[in-house]
Design brief:
CATH architecture of the largest domain: 3-Layer(aba) Sandwich
Number of helices: 12
Structural class: alpha/beta
Radius of gyration: 23 Å
Helix content: 40-55%
Order of helices and strands: HHHHHHHHEHEHEHEHE
Bound molecules: pyridoxal-5'-phosphate
InterPro entries: PyrdxlP-dep_de-COase (IPR002129), PyrdxlP-dep_Trfase (IPR015424), PyrdxlP-dep_Trfase_major (IPR015421)
Organism: Alkalilimnicola ehrlichii
Mean pLDDT: 92
CATH superfamily of the largest domain: Type I PLP-dependent aspartate aminotransferase-like (Major domain)
Low-confidence stretches: none
Largest sheet: 5 strands, parallel
CATH topology of the largest domain: Aspartate Aminotransferase, domain 2
Family: Belongs to the group II decarboxylase family.
Keywords: Decarboxylase, Lyase, Pyridoxal phosphate
Number of strands: 5
Cofactor: pyridoxal 5'-phosphate
Distance between the termini: 56 Å
Length: 310
């Protein structure tokens, strides 16, 4: 490529027509999805991987020719349709308009959230969102939060905080910490054990408390396990507010009360990735009220938040 050509193709990356054309095409697809015009189609694309790959190449060709609307419609057809009336909400929700626009705006402005000077207004937005989340979940005033790229990273962050706190920051400073036991159930999310592996807590130190057939933790089982723990042995209890497989909720309030009575020093983490969006249900008032007594909470608004009940 000669220099003139290269400069031209680089300038093309910031072509305003492409930006506006692309966004309009996304808007057109959104309009169709929001109005359920495709409710005769299937929820998941009926094509196999090979056919989808061919479509992908076709979409690329259309994009190169500036046919944004056709290309984006094609990509939309290859996606699981969260807006379809037959979609049973397998965890992920149909995003509201403000979320989609917010995503586009965040991409356009691309602020660096590491330091305030790189993202002045956006840092304040982040503060507001976290304050809002804290209030919705009913967390204690002194809770601080961080947005992460999903529930797995939230659980990793929570276990990291637990490890640092319980080892008096020795884990962080010296890379050494006392043996730490993580109690959860067979139904807790796999990211919990993975986080324990990544953090050097060790997957072998993740112990399962028995539960009922839906995966709800037995409070008696928890009491027994905590009683058996030596006094000096630090531990983390991971409770699940809505497990991934069945949606069942651990008896959070009872488990917290029992854990605090037997071992007030254990770190209690609530994985509310799946069920956190149900904070508005009066039947779960007691469950959410117990979050105040916990040390950390994960929440995935990209799941049950915005669930659409028809
Ligand atoms: C989905 C889920 C996670 C992981 O969330 P990602 O956003 O997929 O990383 C963690 N815990 C529970 C209970 C979940 O359902």
């Amino acid at each position: 490529m000669d220099n003139g050509n290269r400069q031209q193709s680089i300038a093309q990356l910031w072509n305003p027509d492409e930006l506006v054309g692309g966004l309009e095409a996304v808007g057109a697809l959104g309009q169709r999805l929001y109005s359920n015009a495709d409710d005769t189609g299937s929820v998941a694309p009926s094509l196999d991987g090979k056919a989808l790959k061919q479509r992908l190449h076709e979409a690329k060709r259309l994009l190169r020719n500036g046919r944004y609307e056709d290309a984006i419609a094609l990509l939309g057809e290859g996606a699981v349709n969260l807006y379809h009336p037959g979609y049973m909400s397998q965890q992920l929700c149909a995003p509201a308009a403000a979320s989609v626009v917010g995503d586009a705006l965040a991409s356009l402005l691309n602020q660096g959230h590491a330091v305030f000077s790189m993202s002045p207004t956006h840092s304040l937005v982040e503060d507001e969102v976290l304050a809002w989340a804290k209030q919705r979940l009913g967390l204690a005033e002194d809770f601080v939060g961080i947005p992460t790229g999903g529930g797995s990273l939230s659980n990793l962050s929570a276990l990291l905080a637990a490890r640092n706190f319980l080892s008096n920051w020795r884990g962080w400073r010296d890379g050494a910490w006392p043996k730490l036991t993580v109690f959860s159930t067979a139904f807790s999310h796999y990211s919990v054990a993975r986080a324990a592996g990544m953090l050097g807590i060790g997957v072998e130190n993740c112990l399962e408390i028995e539960g009922d057939r839906y995966g709800r933790m037995s409070v008696e089982g928890l009491a027994k396990s905590l009683t058996r723990l030596r006094d000096s042995e630090p531990a983390v209890v991971v409770l699940t507010l809505g497990n991934t497989a069945t949606g069942a909720i651990d008896p959070i309030a009872d488990a917290v009360a029992v854990a605090r009575r037997i071992r007030p020093d254990v770190w209690i983490h609530v994985d509310a990735a799946h069920g956190g969006g149900l904070f508005h249900l009066s039947s779960l008032h007691e469950t959410f009220a117990a979050l105040k007594e916990c040390d950390s909470v994960s929440w995935n608004p990209h799941k049950l938040f915005f669930s659409r009940f028809r």
